[in-house]
From TrEMBL:
Residues 6-158 form the NmrA-like domain. InterPro entries: NAD(P)-bd_dom_sf, NmrA-like, NmrA/Isoflavone_reductase-like, PCBER-like. This is NmrA-like domain-containing protein. Keywords: NADP, Oxidoreductase. GO terms for molecular function: oxidoreductase activity.
Length: 331
């Protein structure tokens, strides 16, 4: 049996999911974690590192337009974890991958935190999901460079999605309104940010090879896990328990999933970015349950805990009340 990989580089260590992953990996006390961050410009504040999680081994500023800068920052690392906004420039990830391979990194966790995208193009999973094609292309790119990848199939981020505006899970907390997709009873799997962090940390704590579970179990595969399997009705019930509201306090309407998907596409074509959220989110609520990955999840294999739904909902409500959720708006 081999040992776990030691040196972990994280892009986006101060970001949304990146900060939870970074903190969880550091908390295990088994790894040296280095944050790879874009270098400051004269017009931007220099205290970027002040927002970084405590306990980092190092923080290395890079120039994304300099391959040499990226390679130098990644020398000596065993794993590269990439977390960045889906709206980031398309070539950002390939630049990081190129540098990682040239720096001798053989394990890469690409910027894929969400859906389950099997390589089989005929699979019903990921139906109408525009992110699938890009995700698979990045995997092939890594393999073509001689590297290994591990994708994260965790579903949507629960607190982030629930606290978002109507174009995500259909909830608008300010208006106390909810759009139910079809009848609102279709379940899908989703994960909290802490659960994503725990899963990645536990994965990296495994030996590379040997008896299962080991890292090689997920070599060039996705690791599938979740926090909950929920319908919109389940979410509403939790919201009512947490807030003390009655269902009659909320205005509830319905929209068909196919209708919503097409409407979101048209909005996006017109340049309205919220349309992207509408048609992306509704795909996991299509009839047939392909957004529910419960049968595929590997929580037990990773030793992940069961979570309290209302506690996670409470976090989402706090994001709304603090105004933090507005920072994630696509409007």
């Amino acid at each position: 049996m081999s040992s776990p990989l030691k040196n972990i580089a994280v892009v986006g260590a101060s970001g949304q999911v990146g900060s939870f992953i970074t903190k969880a990996v550091i908390s295990q006390g088994q790894h040296n974690v280095t944050a790879i961050t874009r270098g400051h410009k004269p017009t931007t504040p220099r205290n970027r590192t002040a927002q970084m999680p405590a306990g980092l081994h190092a923080v290395k500023e890079v120039d994304y337009d300099s391959h040499a800068s990226l390679v130098e920052a990644m020398k000596g690392q065993d794993v590269l974890i990439i977390t960045m906004n889906v709206m980031a420039p398309k070539d950002s990830q390939t630049k990081l991958i190129d540098a990682a391979i040239d720096a001798g990194i053989h394990w890469i966790m690409p910027n894929q935190y969400g859906g389950y995208y099997p390589d089989d193009e005929t699979s019903e999973f990921g139906r109408n999901d525009m992110l699938r094609e890009g995700a698979v292309a990045v995997r092939r790119y890594i393999e073509g460079k001689g590297g290994n990848w591990i994708g994260v199939a965790c579903g949507f981020w629960y607190e982030f999605s629930l606290s978002g505006q109507e174009y995500r899970y259909g909830f608008d907390f300010e208006k106390k309104s909810l759009t139910l997709f079809d009848d609102g009873e279709q379940k899908h799997t989703c994960s909290t940010w802490p659960q994503v962090g725990r899963a990645v940390a536990k994965l990296l704590a495994l030996p590379v090879s040997g008896a299962s579970p080991c890292l090689n179990d997920w070599k060039n595969k996705q690791v599938v896990f979740s926090s909950f399997a929920l319908s919109q009705r389940d979410m509403l019930a939790s919201v009512l328990r947490v807030t003390g509201d009655k269902e009659s306090d909320w205005t509830i309407t319905h929209e068909g999933t196919e209708e919503r998907f097409k409407r979101g596409q048209e909005m996006f074509k017109q340049g309205r970015i919220a349309g992207f959220g509408i048609f992306l989110y509704v795909t996991v609520f299509f009839p047939g349950g392909k957004g529910d990955l419960t049968a595929l999840r590997e929580n037990e294999k990773l030793g992940l805990p069961e979570e309290d739904l209302d506690e996670a909902t409470r976090v989402a409500v706090q994001y709304v009340e603090s105004g933090k959720a507005k920072e994630w708006s696509l409007s």
